[in-house]
Amino acid sequence: MNHQEEYPADYLADILREVNTIAMVGASPDPTKFSYGVLRVLNERGYNMKPVNPKEAGNEIRGLKVYGSIADVDEPIDMVQVFRGPEALPGIAQEAIDAGAKVLWGQIGVYNEDAAKLAEDAGLQVVMNRCPKIELFRPFWKPRLNQVI
Question: N or C: which end of the chain has fewer CB within 10 A?
Answer without folding.
Answer: C
